[in-house]
Amino acid sequence: MNRLNFLIKSRNNDLTFVYEKVSFADSFCFYDRAFSYQDDDNGGQDLTERTILVYIAGDALQSYVQGNLEGLVKGYGESEKVSNLLVYFEDGRSAPTLYQIIKDKNGVVEKNVIKNYNEEIISTDPEVMAEILNDGFSFCPAKNYGLVMGSHGTSWIPGTSVPRSWGASKKYNINIPELANVLANIPYVYLDFVLFDSCYMSAVEVAYELKDVAKYIIASPTEVIGFGFPYDALVKEMFSYEEHTVYRLAEVYAEYYDGTLKNNVYMEGSIAVIKTEGMRALASVTSDILNSSGEEIWNIDRNELQRYYCISDHNFCWDFGYFMKTLNEEKYSLLVDELDKTIIYKYTTPYFGRSLGYSNYLTIDPETYSGIASFIPVYGSMDEFHNYYKELAWFKAAGWEDVWFN
Predict the structure, then answer these.
(1) Cβ distance 54 to 148 under 8 Å?
(2) What's the pLDDT at 39?
(3) What is the pTM for the complete model shown?
């Protein structure tokens, strides 16, 4: 575990992935819904505008996730415009629970239990996750849906002897292709957004896997300080944003992590909003650049590029735009056009990692920051990362299979 000199940590961790099937507890509690949400297939009543499900699998972030839950309750109480807010909460201290946050007739905010789950369930098991999401979204159907995922994360990296792709539930995790499959099969749900309150999840490999399950991905290419998103502020935006203001979901993060020193903590961070419909065109231009770069791909000096990792064994994330420009500056102009269409909002502080105790902290130029990361393979490497990389959808779509060394 990456513990910090100042008792601050980030949302990544060294855990081992093991796949296990787990059954649900039988007991659950239904109650009167706070909103009307039926459509023609459900009695002809109107659907409520939006259901947001916050999925917290944070038993390795115990010191932070309780504060996240309190922030959600506080923000809901202060919001003028609200709709359905569901929270799946696992902190390793008590049985996982699915709540609905509501206001009673007097405006008092309550956490009502939809379902209590067996303490032994693993929240990152694909079958378990699928059923939890179905429990929530089927309980509160709506016109639009959003998903917030709060836990540890390490981009596309498979869960082996190093950090997982996403999640930390009893030291288990889920890989991104599995996550995409889970999200693609939630009955009658297409997500407006997936927001990752986790480290390293703004990456071309992740976005391409998830391009068909959500319109937008909000995520950071760097680590996320353990506090995570400012949930009280986030809630207010989740129920008030319109299609053209979805960037506000990331802007609240930027306003919170403004680079200043607060209570002896440098509030540093980076964030981006990815419009997933642009990922295919981005992959096409990437393929053109890779196929025209020849041996330069394998001769590139990664030390000269913008890295997004502070820990040496997390060397899987560099700035994607910077990498492409270094390979082929002539064709980079075409990539910039697609990046501008795809990364619709981006923000970074000029430094990251000082309060995490890293001597190797990041220096990031906001002018060249593209908002999204990429892996840069090493010629001839046959380690587990490189072998797994060939299984990702981005590997083929972006032309890596055409230039691969074996």
Answers:
(1) yes
(2) 45
(3) 0.88
